[in-house]
Amino acid sequence: MAIKVKIADIKTVFLNLLMCVVIFYAVYFIAVSLCIGGFRIEDIDSLLAPFDFKTSPSWTNSKYVVNLISAEVTFFISGLMFALIVEEWVWDYAITVTLIHVGLTTVVMSEFPSADHWWISIGSGLSVMAFGGQLLAYKLFKNNFIYPVLEDF
C-alpha cells in the first residue's frame, strides 16, 4: 500500500495554510486595534501585542485585558473563517496555525513562552477555533464531507 500524493494537492494545502495564517494575523491586528481604541490605551505596542506573554495577568491591568480579549476574539473569528476556506479539516489548520503562532512568538520575544496564563489562553483559543470552525464547516458542507472507509485499515 503506497501513498500517492499529487503536487497540486500539496500546493492547495500550502495555499490554504498561507491564507489561514494571513487571516489569523489580520484578524488579530484588527482585534488588537479595536481593543486599544475601545480601552483608550496609549502605552501598548500594537505590533508586539499578539506575541506578548510577559504582561502580568491581572484584570486591573488593561494591557493584559486587551491582549486576552483580542486573542480570544481572534481565535473564534479565525475558526469560522477557516471553515469557509478549507471546508472540512478546520481542526488541522487550527492546530497548525496555532503552532506557527507559538513559533513566531518564540522568535519575536526571543524566548519560549513559559507563562501559564498565556498557555491557558492559547489552549482555550485553539479549542474554540477548532470546535467552532469544525462545527460551522459541518453545518455548511455536510453533504461534501469525505468520510474515511475504516475497512481499509
From TrEMBL:
The alphabetized UniProt keywords are: Membrane, Transmembrane, Transmembrane helix
Q: Does the keyword Protein transport apply?
A: no
As recorded in UniProt, coiled-coil segments are: none
Q: Give a GO cellular-component term.
A: membrane
By its UniProt entry, which InterPro entries does this protein fall under?
Integral_membrane_SYS1-rel
Q: How is it placed in the membrane, per its record?
A: Multi-pass membrane protein
Q: What is its main location?
A: membrane
Which compartments is it annotated to reside in?
Membrane
Please list every transmembrane segment annotated in the UniProt record, as residue ranges.
12-39, 64-86, 93-112, 118-138
Q: Which domain of life is it from?
A: Eukaryota
The protein's matches in PANTHER family, at most eight in alphabetical order, are given as: SYS1, TRANSMEMBRANE PROTEIN 244
Kindly provide the name given to this protein in its UniProt entry.
Transmembrane protein 244
Gene encoding the protein: TMEM244
